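User: Before I run my own analysis I want an independent prediction to cross-check against. Here's the chain; please return only the structure tokens and, at the end, one sentence I can use as a sanity check.
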Amino acid sequence: MKKSIEDIWKEGFINNEKLTAPKINDLYNQKSIHLVDKFRRDFKLNLIYIIFLSLFFLGAGIFLNAVYSGIVIFLLLISLLVYGKKRLDIINKLDYNDNSYKYLKSFDDWLQATLKGYTLLYQIFYPVFFLAIAGGVWFSPIGEKVMQKFPDLQTVLGLPLYPTIVVFSIAILLIFLAKRLYELDMNLIYKSQMDKLKDLLADMEELRA
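Assistant: Structure tokens:
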């Protein structure tokens, strides 16, 4: 009786603790390598995008006479860049050892650690970014026009009292929403790849059982 593909897979895992059925093994090897390579390329492109974005905000801050806001946002983006570069160096050292399951597991471990680190960073990034934008707007010509239109506006340290309370309340809220916002951001860029990774690992783990 001919063995099913699933039987061949299971036999390969049981006998050698890795995929040994040649055709199926090659197929999953190619899928694994392609998935990780594509993610690595996209991750690198995202870091390049952050470089241009940081320079844009720095230039915009100078041009709009909101230098401090521009510098703050620039430094925030650079912190994301530095962390991302360190994580990229780690994944570049990830070695494929002819075992697609272990390769993908190592990549998944790297991915989960990277996501956790970015989540912590974004708990700082989102509120500070928002405060920098709000401060830049207030100390720009827009803020001057508001003060001219409402000369009796109550201020504290040069800031409008009630709008400042609202702004800081939103900033605090962003700390708690950071994880969700970052997940939405990740889904826009990497959702299809993360779904493929999850499916590949699920298939392999099922056949290893």
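Sanity check: Residues 5-207 form one domain.
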